[in-house]
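Hey all, quick one. A colleague (J.T.) asked me to put the zinc ion job into the tracker so the inputs and the structure tokens live in one place instead of scattered across chat threads. No bug as far as I know, just bookkeeping. Sequence used:
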Amino acid sequence: MKHIYINQVGFTKDSTKKAVLNFEAEEFEVKNKAGEKLFSGKVTKFGTDKISGEETFIADFSDFKEEGSFVVCAGDIASAGFTISDAVYHKLMKDVLKCFYYLRCGDALTKEYAGDYYHKPCHMSLATVYGTDEKKDVTGGWHDAGDYGRYSTAGAVAVAHLLYGVRFFGNLLDVKFNIPSENCEKGQYPDILSEVKVELDFLMKMQREDGAVYHKLTTFCHAPFIMPEEDKEELFLFAVSSIATADFAAVCALAYSIYKDFDSAYAGKLLAASQKAYEWLTENPKPLLFYNVEGSNTGQYDEAEDYSNRYWAAAALYEATGDESYYEDVRDHKRKAADYGDKHAGFGFQGDFLTCMGWAEVAGLGSLSLILKGADDELTKEIMTRFGSEADRIAKVGTLNGFGLSMLPEDYIWGSNMELLKYMMILAVADRFVASKPEYKKAIHAGLDYLLGCNSMDVSYVTGHGEKAYKNPHLRPTAMDDVDKPWPGLVSGGPNRGLQDEKASELPKDTAPMKCYIDDVSCYSLNEITIYWNSPLVFVLAYFGA
Ligand SMILES: [Zn+2]
């Protein structure tokens, strides 16, 4: 079928603008809603690429700078509609942030702010420390994803994307997304800090007396598809891990560096919790990894080592306190990670240790702290160089396909949209703080265009944003509530060559990576949502000034 793929949300006036055609045409036109032709140009041929499997043609209309609502046409084929305006991403940013509010666990939602998406208080019972009779109050925080689990490492990483966004792009503090405001010493917190505090308060409850942090809080098995308040199974705090403890130490130190300007008492509590976790890590130098107990099937969030986590913790504490002993630890963990990589053939931190930014490989987040610290030394220079070289590599990948997209076939794994967003974060940091380059800007924009509809599925991967936005996330409350549409602003995991669920496995094995996607609620391997897939989009939209 003939398609014109386009970013269905739109563009700012001066940005690069393109549509991708999967059919040959001489010319294209930009028309307004009344059908008037306002711009025309020549279509250029790219050819076939490995990620879409399609022959692609490009319609570049960067020179068209009128505000309004438009479509791109070639012959009798038209794209989905889109907008050109300098405020084009503002609503998107608000909705992507508001999702954290809708994902709140406990008694935090109100009808005033949640509207039709209100749910009754959930998961309010005391949790049992697994294998003991000990009970603990661990209410609050955000549900992690399509399930109702709450996981320390995933929560810390999501908070980190939001808070590094605040540190790098201060405009995030001005975004209002209609949530109840939390009072603080300075009056009221900015909305983003009110929302993040919900998760920080929860994470602090996950810390044990001795400083270690429980890896996760879930029922023994995933709940069936029911509303959260109907999930009454016993809650368990599963074992502590060094990965959760390190991520917790890191994110509390990062949070301290921001909250201290609003509420010194709360910031002090964050720093004390961070340092207590760090002391535990120092006393327990061996990795304490995490694996599910037999029979339990909730998220494992396992990691093979903890060097990247300890590096992040030390870097964030060094940035927050200036204490050189943390900086010595940063160098030490970097050395140990290199040794580990040398000894484990085939093991590599994705891309590179200093820039890796997954939910598990978090050293890149530590490097962000060191970039913020801005020391004039060897390691900081090395980090800046690596961010630059990784951004160069990522931007170059974008020249291999007609979409300008920095994705290789092997990047289409479970949660491929996070792979893309990680790359966009690296490009954004490099563009703003290492060296501003047109190819970085182009690659970031191509990533945003892809997420919002310029892809071979012709679908926007953010609910409620785009004429053809996906509608069926693998997410229990939106599947079970009485509301027709999911709440807006949810990022889908996106295409995944692994096709790991039953419905997905019906797709032919030779499906092109970009087309390994079905908008179906049962497709947990293609269409789930998570807090740490929404959070990097907030960072990227902040770069765009939204
Ligand atoms: Zn809950």
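Adding what we noticed when we looked at it: The chain is about 40% helix and 10% strand. The first strand starts at residue 4 and ends at 5.
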